[in-house]
Every structure is written in C-alpha cells, then in structure tokens.
Write a structure and sequence with these properties.
Layout: E1 20-23, E2 27-28, E3 33-34, E4 39-42, E5 52-55, E6 58-60, E7 65-70, E8 76-82, E9 96-98, E10 104-114, E11 119-129, E12 133-135, E13 139-140, E14 154-156, E15 158-168, E16 174-178, E17 204-214, E18 219-228
Length: 230
C-alpha cells in the first residue's frame, strides 16, 4: 500500500521501485472523503548500463591517440564523452581522441541515455607514460642559404648529462665534440666548422659517434656517417 499523500496534481504519478497493479481505495479532500475505484499498472523499465573500452588505455608520448568503444547495454540513443583533459565533450558513439604528448593520467567519463530518458555513467582511467626517441640527420648544407645550414638533433626522454657527441674526419682526426646536447638543439646546432680552429670543414663524409642514456637508464651508442654538402 502506498503511503497517504496530499496533492493537487492531476494526474498523480506513482513513484515506486516495485512493478505491479496499484488500486486507489480511499481519498479525502477539503470537502469530502470516501472510497473510489481506480487502478494503475506500474511497469519498471530496465535502466541503461554505461560501459566502454579505451583502445589502447595505456600509451606513451610517442602515440597519444585512443579509440573509445561504447559497450553500453540498453536502447541507447545519446552519448556524452568527457576526456578528462579540458577539451570539448563529444557526442558520438565511438570517438577517437588524441591527448597532448605529456605524461599523465586522465579519467574518461561516458554518460549514456536511453529512449525513456534514463541515464547512466561509466568512468575509466588511461595513462600516458614517457618514452625516448632521437632523430639524427645524415647530412646538412652549411652554405648560408637559410635551409638546413646547421646540424641539429630532435629528441625526447634523454638524460642530457650522459650525452656525448664526436665527429671525426676520414683520417680519424676529431673535428667536432660536445658533451652538451643543447649545443645540437635546433635552436643552436653545429655550423660545420672545426671545433678548435673555427674554419669551415671541407665538403665530404665524416664519422660521428654518439652516446647517451635514455630516461630509464638504458645505454645507447651509435657510430654512423655524416655528410657535409657545400
């Protein structure tokens, strides 16, 4: 039996979590009271269940795009995704999302709604971890034309204090050396001059040796050819 209620709403909505037949057996108001026949059938609808997968849910700074695959149950008609990185929400079923290449944890939330207006929410954490990479060009053209005039490195995740870079000519003479990776950043770079005399090195093939440790402490060493074109 439903508890006694006072209302001026017509029709009155029965709020219950139990399905079944409900009968009105008594009423009263300011003027009269008495019995009244009436019946309502209450159906409890199955609510939607929000759930999804992030593919992948663990990434590195080298690749920060994930696909979010909706796995929700019910007659879903609307989706709202929040990616946890202060970007705009999206309202499609299976979006792709690219995070900035920065380390962090992000909580993704999905709100789904069904055709009856019922809603549910699911959340999932994804992680972006560090990784190392380095790009070493095999030639440069120090001819002062403003294009590729300096030799420079692009990199991420390197322990800069461990860095060593040496260049030798074909007679194994050292012509350039640095222990400061910032000397070879693309804001600076090597201009193809001898590190002691300051004179332009002749066009030709040289050998470089590079050593460094990545952010996890793994050691890397490489010997390869570098060509100066004038």
């Amino acid at each position: 039996m439903q508890p006694s209620i006072t209302t001026t709403v017509n029709p009155h909505i029965i709020k219950t979590k139990e399905a079944g037949d409900y009968s009105l057996v008594f009423y009263n108001d300011a003027n009269e009271f008495g019995s009244l026949s009436g019946q309502a059938i209450v159906t409890i609808l199955t609510p939607p269940i929000a759930q999804f997968k992030a593919q992948p849910d663990s990434m590195t700074v080298l690749f920060t795009t994930t696909q979010l695959v909706d796995k929700s149950l019910g007659n879903i008609t609307a989706w709202e995704w929040n990616f946890g990185d202060n970007t705009s929400n999206e309202f499609i079923q299976n979006p792709y999302h690219t995070y900035k290449d920065s380390i962090g944890m992000y909580q993704i939330s999905l709100i789904v709604s069904d055709d009856q207006g019922c809603a549910d929410t699911a959340q999932h954490l994804i992680t972006i971890t560090d990784d190392y990479w380095i790009y070493i060009p095999n030639s440069f053209t120090p001819d002062l034309d403003g294009i590729n005039d300096r030799f420079c490195l692009s990199y991420n995740g390197i322990r800069e204090a461990t860095f060593t870079f040496n260049v030798f000519d074909r007679f194994s003479n050292l012509v350039y050396a640095t222990n400061n990776i910032q000397d070879l950043s693309c804001e600076n770079g090597w201009d193809g001059k001898h590190y002691q005399t300051g004179k332009d090195l002749p066009m030709g093939a040289y050998i470089y040796q590079i050593y460094y440790q990545d952010f996890e402490g793994w050691k890397h060493q490489e010997t390869s050819e570098l060509i100066i074109v004038r």
